[in-house]
Amino acid sequence: xxxxxxxxxxxxxxxxxxxxxxxxxxxPLVSSKMLKSEAHAMRNCIxxxxxxxxxxxxxxxxxxxLYNRNRRIATLGAYKDEGYWVFDQCVGExxxxxxxxxxxxID
Length: 107
What we know:
The radius of gyration is 14 Å and the shape is globular. Strand 4 and strand 5 (84-91) form a beta hairpin. It is built from four helices and five strands. 24% of the residues lie in helices and 34% in strands.
């Protein structure tokens, strides 16, 4: 655990590859560098999930608008529960909740 916090493990596995769904591009964040970039761009707190991601207990995704130069619109999070992945949050800039209507309006 200490090694992860010190940055020893900087990449990890995510069971979901990059995918396009409707007008959205979903990018798994699989490194500390990607996490930091997303946190900075979205001004949110996803850096706090570094340890969980490195231990492959949590996955984070950058949600982008394909029709607007891949503009970041949200960060999606999922945790592992008894072998299954469960989405638990979808936040926009500054941790503001993103509604289904906002996501659907892109498609």
